[in-house]
Amino acid sequence: MSIQIAPSILAADFANLQKEVEMLNSSEADYIHVDIMDGLFVPNISFGLPVTEAIHRHATKPLDVHLMIMDPDRYLEAFRKVGAETISVHLEACTHLHRTIQAIHHLGAKSGVALNPHSPVDLLSEIIQDVDIVCMMSVNPGYGGQKFIENTYQKISRLKDLIISKGAKTKIEIDGGVNLGNAPKLKEAGADILVAGSFVFNSANPLDTIKELKSI
Description:
Elements: E1 4-7, H1 17-25, E2 32-37, H2 49-58, E3 63-68, H3 76-81, E4 84-90, H4 97-106, E5 110-115, E6 133-137, H5 152-165, E7 171-175, H6 183-189, E8 193-196, H7 198-201, H8 206-214
């Protein structure tokens, strides 16, 4: 099965955001990954609802919205209204994760659960069948351009075993430090979706870089 690619718009040129979105529209990317940061759950602030709405207005690819925020339940409906087709919340930020997943589905979006590097995949054992995507952080969340955490490969394998054992259809998404050097091994370990930000937008030809990632 072909790997899916979700370029992270966080690494784009914000002064030319429409142009960057249109570039992704013409690429072989499957999603546009939108990182929302509140400066509380992670030590950085990115953008919020108005920018997400602007991205959606020009995008022809589905928006994969990653909420790196405290108390994400407050904003599920709002992000759905501005175009989120997948909404990922952090396990570490949700007191009642099952209820949050139900709320995302009720809004008609696909549900995602993001896991920080220190969080074991076993924490998802009772809910994995209800989750559409697990966004596994392969760097500490909050900043782009970080070094890939090598333990991620083993963690993917454990998550894949859990998905199979529960008869789930959950996809595994890897977010952080993805490049052409580690992408084949990530796919081999069981990843379905690769998020790439700096590696795509800082490359000489982002269209070719996305195509190369897609073809691994």
